[in-house]
């Protein structure tokens, strides 16, 4: 047990979750590495939601509210860390969840289905797709196989996405919302809206704004949002924060 007073309590609890889901077979080995990369960037950000992240969260909520056919795409890390929030968002938007795995094996799919089965009450009424026979063009990996819902969606929320796939989705004409602590990743740079924040901090805020923004407010927020400018502001914030830090 990690004591609550531990200075790195939150971070260690997330690690425990990641390890637990790895051991259950839901998360791939590479997911452990991806988490570590995220942690490093979170250290530099200061492990809090910045004003820039908040701006992109509001823009993301706005885009989701105004979209006709949104979809939430999840991988092992997202299931491990933020599944409750994904469920809440999916219910609010009345949108399907797509399970999309980089390392897709029968074993992993089985482990994920078992986990969903254990949580079937919360999942009631939600459509969950495990990919399908529709193909994302310009993509080599297994992740190109998607469901009909995903294929015809207009906006996809894809937390912790891979650069290749984010790029291919944009080429398909989709609006892509991502959550990624690394503002320099290809995913961050190509996405329509990039939330540079930790997924467990960003998701409850995203849910809150989807609940509270009106369509008119959403339209106004989107009009003034500039993703490239936001990413540049975050990079500036990170470098200034580092320059000011004293040991
Ligand atoms: P890209 O493929 O976009 O160029 P990458 O190859 O550097 O990025 P991936 O391993 O494909 O990185 O994606 C994992 C991304 O998810 C990393 O950029 C990492 O910072 C981010 N990440 C990991 N854990 C979290 C988390 N808990 N919250 C937010 N972001 C996270
Ligand atoms: Mg990648």
UniProtKB/TrEMBL annotation:
UniProt key word Ligase: yes
EC class: ligase
Pathway annotation from the record: Cofactor biosynthesis; coenzyme A biosynthesis
Keyword Aminoacyl-tRNA synthetase among UniProt keywords: no
GO MF term (any one): ATP binding
Keyword field: ATP-binding, Coenzyme A biosynthesis, Ligase, Nucleotide-binding
Transmembrane annotation, as ranges: none
Biological-process GO terms, alphabetical: coenzyme A biosynthetic process
Short name of any one Pfam family annotated for the protein: PPS_PS
Binding residue positions for ATP: 15, 37, 180-182, 186-187
EC number(s) reported in the record: 6.3.2.36
Catalytic activity: (R)-4-phosphopantoate + beta-alanine + ATP = (R)-4'-phosphopantothenate + AMP + diphosphate + H(+)
NCBIfam families referenced in this protein's UniProt entry, alphabetically: phpantohe_syn_Arch, PRK13761.1
Role summary: Catalyzes the condensation of (R)-4-phosphopantoate and beta-alanine to 4'-phosphopantothenate in the CoA biosynthesis pathway.
Description of how the protein assembles with itself and partners: Homodimer.
Family under the similarity heading: Belongs to the archaeal phosphopantothenate synthetase family.
Name of the protein: 4-phosphopantoate--beta-alanine ligase
Organism: Methanocaldococcus infernus (strain DSM 11812 / JCM 15783 / ME)
Phylogenetic classification of the source organism: Archaea, Methanobacteriati, Methanobacteriota, Methanomada group, Methanococci
């Amino acid at each position: 047990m990690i004591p609550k007073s531990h200075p790195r309590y939150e971070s260690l609890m997330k690690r425990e979750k990641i390890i637990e889901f790895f051991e259950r077979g839901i998360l791939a080995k590479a997911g452990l590495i991806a988490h570590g990369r995220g942690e490093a960037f979170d250290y530099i950000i200061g492990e809090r939601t910045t004003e820039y992240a908040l701006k992109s969260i509001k823009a993301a909520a706005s885009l989701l509210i105004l979209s006709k056919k949104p979809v939430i795409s999840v991988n092992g890390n997202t299931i491990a860390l933020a599944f409750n929030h994904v469920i809440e968002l999916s219910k609010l938007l009345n949108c399907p969840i797509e399970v999309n795995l980089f390392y897709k094996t029968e074993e992993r799919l089985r482990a994920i289905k078992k986990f969903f089965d254990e949580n079937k009450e919360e999942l009631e009424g939600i459509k969950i797709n495990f990919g399908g026979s529709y193909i994302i063009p310009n993509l080599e990996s297994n992740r190109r196989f998607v469901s009909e819902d995903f294929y015809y969606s207009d906006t996809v929320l894809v937390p912790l996405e891979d650069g290749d796939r984010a790029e291919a989705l944009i080429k398909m004409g989709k609006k892509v919302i991502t959550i990624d602590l690394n503002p320099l990743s290809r995913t961050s740079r190509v996405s329509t809206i990039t939330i540079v924040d930790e997924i467990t901090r960003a998701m409850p805020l995203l849910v809150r704004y989807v609940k509270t923004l009106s369509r008119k407010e959403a339209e106004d927020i989107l009009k003034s949002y500039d993703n490239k400018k936001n990413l540049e502001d975050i990079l500036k914030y990170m470098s200034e924060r580092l320059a000011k830090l004293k040991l």
